[in-house]
Design a protein that fits this description.
By secondary structure, the protein is mainly alpha-helical. Helix content is about 75%, strand content about 5%. The two termini are about 20 Å apart.
């Protein structure tokens, strides 16, 4: 069956290896530095409030969310949400993760173009990742190349979303490092390297996600092209 096509592994294996490596790096960096108290002794909430204040973003709310590493910025509600372990924990890892999400809030405040583009792509990316896959599978089952290519086109929107997401995340991490240094929340060089390790590990997961999306698209195009040759 198509669903278990071993050929897919030839396309996906490199991306899967990067994903496994990225997840291991995140677990390692977070596991290590979530246990190391930052030198300022401030919680994630306190760090977020301080960074928002420096950049004149007092209107951005801060909330505690459920789950582990569920931290994110919601541009629609102007809300920063941090998991319990980040919100109330005075760790080095909390500093890195909080600063990254505040970086997204700063992007929003400044009208950062890639972030605005990503927000606009959310609905079409969701459509492409679901309906595109359905049309592709249906086209393969019934042997209609037109449906297959329609699925490929829709799935391409999800790949485009991953492509746009990467620079948005990398820029947020760049801003995070700068903010932590300029505000003095990171005291020593060692602490700076520790927060950078947390941010770099998280960024690698977005690289892996993009590689996975591209690998899947390449596989779909390969099959679609093969169907076209048989027609």
């Amino acid at each position: 069956m198509f669903f278990f096509d071993p050929l897919y592994l030839l396309f996906a294996a490199p991306a899967l290896l990067v994903m496994f490596y990225a997840q291991a790096k995140v677990r390692s960096a977070y596991g290590k530095y979530s246990k190391v108290r930052n030198m300022k002794g401030i919680t994630g909430y306190e760090a977020a409030r301080a960074l928002l204040s420096v950049h004149g973003m007092g209107d951005v709310r801060i909330e505690e969310s459920k789950g582990l590493l569920t931290d994110h910025y919601d541009p629609r509600g102007k809300v920063l949400r941090f998991s319990k372990d980040i919100y109330g924990n005075a760790s080095v890892a909390s500093l890195g993760i909080v600063a990254h999400e505040v970086g997204h809030a700063l992007q929003d405040q400044q009208g950062y173009a890639p972030m605005k583009l990503r927000a606009g792509l959310v609905p079409v990316a969701n459509l492409g990742s679901t309906l595109g896959y359905v049309l592709f599978i249906l086209g393969v089952i019934v042997g209609v190349a037109g449906l297959v290519w329609a699925g490929v086109a829709l799935f391409s929107l999800a790949v485009l979303f991953s492509l746009v997401t990467l620079p948005v995340e990398l820029d947020a991490s760049r801003r995070a490092k700068q903010m932590l240094q300029s505000t003095g929340l990171v005291v020593s060089g060692e602490e700076g390297r520790a927060t950078a390790a947390v941010l770099s590990a998280a960024a690698l997961t977005y690289v892996a996600a993009l590689l996975q999306a591209v690998a899947s698209l390449a596989y779909f195009i390969f099959l679609a092209t093969g169907m076209g040759r048989r027609d």
